[in-house]
Amino acid sequence: MTKDADGTVTGLIATNEAGDYVHYKASKGVIMCAGSYGGNEEMVDYFCYPTMAHFIKTYNAYNSKASDTAPVTTDEKMDDGVGHKMMCWAGAIMEEIDPSYQAWSIDGYSFAAPLAVNLQGKRFFNECFSSLSTSFPIFELPEQNNYVWQILGSDTFNMPPLLPIPGMTREIMDMIASSSEYYEADTIAELAEKIDIDPAALTATVERYNEICKGGKDEDFGKAPWHLNPVDTPPYKAFKENYHFYGMSSGVKTNNKLQVVDKDWKVIPHLYAAGNCVGWRMGSGYQNVVPGLCNVYAAVHGYFAGKNCATEN
Ligand SMILES: Cc1cc2nc3c(=O)[nH]c(=O)nc-3n(C[C@H](O)[C@H](O)[C@H](O)COP(=O)(O)OP(=O)(O)OC[C@H]3O[C@@H](n4cnc5c(N)ncnc54)[C@H](O)[C@@H]3O)c2cc1C
Fewer Cβ within 10 Å of end Cβ, the chain: N or C? Predict the structure, then answer.
């Protein structure tokens, strides 16, 4: 990025395909939309608290699209925070609240909130919460892992939709069993052995959970009654629910025109931000009960930042 003596942003220096530097002079302004900083370990360590930083660095989904038919074809770093750094060089400041981020557990949402236990075989949250909310207690667990075990019986019940994939549990079970780590046993104690959990602890948890389900009121964690389905029909099943980090939603401070501001809230002339470079848009938590929120922000910011930049300078 380039700026003149009074701090007005004047353009960018980029590298073309031949490796030559090209100086783009921006008469109207620069819109920074270089993505998040989730792939920059130094920035993650600086801005995130330790357990969150560990989760982000260890369990990120940046290569989740890689497969034999669609391999990753570039070693270019994703989300390296270079946009945030350039803007800070121009005088911007990062938001100061705990950074918000996206995490998701696809396998978790495939079922409608069944019993979930930690590695001690204990239930520890309301399984209906969004997978972002439940990722917090998961990465705070002593093991600092990224998964819980979902425990189900074999009865076929109508799934109340958590995401819009209603259907019969058995069909969903078959689908998930083919893609996620999955075990089956005739008793809860045997199932516990298979997933390396203390059999007595898991048996006690299932007994308590069944008691709750039969009473129709979750006095332990307040799960909605229509999600209380007892685990009482063998063979019993354990599905691993993995959580992954997808990206930071945290960036620099801007005003409502997407103009980037400095530490005194003064506009840095001709500098705009969009998408994951923009701070203060999610509070400290991305709500994935509104799917697509991040992509929508990126598109809407891009539109308004472009319009404001073109018409106001
Ligand atoms: C696996 C996965 C699943 C997701 N699922 C969802 C979802 O279901 N719903 C949702 O809303 N969001 C989802 N997201 C998040 C969403 O994709 C991002 O929040 C969104 O793409 C952010 O848009 P952006 O334009 O800010 O940044 P990006 O889409 O990251 O675009 C930034 C661009 O800038 C380029 N760039 C970076 N640095 C430079 C540089 N120095 N010079 C030139 N170019 C540069 C990058 O190559 C990239 O093309 C998902 C993310 C991941 C990783």
Answer: C
